[in-house]
Every structure is written in C-alpha cells, then in structure tokens.
C-alpha cells in the first residue's frame, strides 16, 4: 500500500447549529485519483475546505503528510468551486496563472525566474500558452477552467484539489479535463468533487460518497442501487470506454 498523504480521522463539522459532516474518516494515498460525490449541500465543498485548513473540524483531526517535498509549505493546489474575481476585471491569462505564486513568496507582483518558468510550464501543460495575453473575460468556460488549473499547478503541488471543475463546461471539455487529471494522477494525488458519479467513475480509482456521513467504494463496485441509496432517486449508470 502506498503512503497516506491525507488522513481524515473521525471528523465532524457544523455551521453553527447545523451539522454538515458527521464522523467522517478517509485515508487518501499518494498518487491516488479520488472522487468525492454527493447531492447538493451534502458537505463536499466543506470537506475540501477542512482538508485545506480553511475550516477547523469541531471533532476529529485531519493529518497531512508531505513525504515528497519536505521543504515546501504549500503543497496543495486548489481549484475552488466559485471563483470570485470579476470576469470583467482587466487581467490576462498569464497574470491569473502567476497569481498562483502569491501565497508562497512574492509580494507586489514581483516574480523570480523560477516562478516565471513554473508558470510557463503550467501553461504548457494546460495548453493555454497561445491565449496567455488574452483578457480573462474573453475566455470560454473550458478555457477559464484550464487557466484556474494552471494557477493551482504553479506552486508544484503534490496534491491537487478541484471542486466541481467541470460544472460549467460541455461534455467534450469535461472529458478533456478529466483525461488531463488522469495523467496528472500518475505523479500527483488528485481529489475531485463532482455530482456526476456516472461520469467520474470512468476516471477515478475510488469514490467517496458523502451525505452527512461517508461511504467509500472502489470504482468497479459502483452499482445503480448504491447511487439510488445515496441520492434517493434512481440514477442510470453509464459505461465509458477509454
Ligand atoms: P456541497 O459542496 O456538497 O454542495 P457545501 O459544503 O457547500 O455542500 O454545504 C453543505 C451545507 O452547509 C449546505 O447545507 C450549505 O447550505 C451549508 N453551508 C455552506 N457554507 C456555509 C456557511 N458559510 N455558513 C452556513 N452554512 C453553510
Ligand atoms: Mg460545493
């Protein structure tokens, strides 16, 4: 068994009086590609924020291990569900990608050579070099998602967390992005939130089904009945061939 990178141990979380997560335990391994699914409001984004340390559990602990790069403080890349910058803000693709460095060292938009070259590499990986000078407001939904993924990659994380990265794109773009993530997962832990279990089960190694509590499944064992129990309504299974 490979190394554990995130160990969620018996975690509960409430917003005020409202319980959102109850007794959640999950061990995520190095280079695993894991999907977190569940209905709207089931606490998926909350769980990611707990993993990121943006929220603190009311009960239980989340331990993070960083075997690959001890020297790095920020080893998690994050693509949030709702990106809060105004689309009409006059900023270019490459500037947005460079913002991925701001949490680590740079102040006042001054970047060193290494930071510039890692941003170039991230743009190449996401195939967005040709739109580097475009204004962010002129991009399609799929292009914008690629920019946000590139931004999350510039700090060279060993864990990449994405919150519904394909909720605003069409199926073809969704397939492109997941194929890319699948490649990344050869040398990176990928945690992706989705509400589309049928789609993601074609890519991920394992799905964690969240609905106040959590149940984990290997991708092969997913059945229509299981989805029905989770969502309370029948969901048709779709098989993917890659
Ligand atoms: P999901 O991502 O699965 O849709 P969330 O984690 O965003 O779910 O939200 C889980 C529940 O917590 C929802 O009922 C939501 O309304 C509530 N919630 C989310 N954020 C807050 C907040 N900042 N304050 C109070 N309640 C919240
Ligand atoms: Mg959410």
Would you kindly provide a written description of the structure presented here, covering whatever features stand out?
The protein has 242 residues and is of the alpha/beta class. It has a single domain (4-231), classed as Rossmann fold (3-Layer(aba) Sandwich), CATH 3.40.50. It has helices at residues 44-52, 93-98, 113-125, 141-153, 171-184, 197-200, 224-231; strands spanning 4-15, 18-29, 33-37, 59-64, 76-79, 159-163, 189-194, 206-211, 213-218. Helix 3 crosses helix 4. The protein is globular and about 45 Å long. The site of magnesium ion (MG) has 4 residues, from helix 1.
Structural class: alpha/beta
Shape: globular
Number of helices: 7
Number of strands: 9
Tally of separate domains: 1
Uncertain regions spanning at least 5 consecutive residues: 233-242
Rounded mean pLDDT score: 84
In order across it, which strands form the biggest sheet?
Answer: 5-6-7-3-8-9
- Main beta sheet strand tally, sense and closure: 6 strands, mixed
CATH topology: Rossmann fold
Helix content: 25-40%
Rg calculated over all Cα atoms: 18 Å
Distance between the termini: 26 Å
By CATH reckoning, the class would read Alpha Beta
Bound small molecules, deduplicated: adenosine-5'-diphosphate, magnesium ion
- What do we call the CATH homologous superfamily? P-loop containing nucleotide triphosphate hydrolases
The CATH architecture classification is 3-Layer(aba) Sandwich
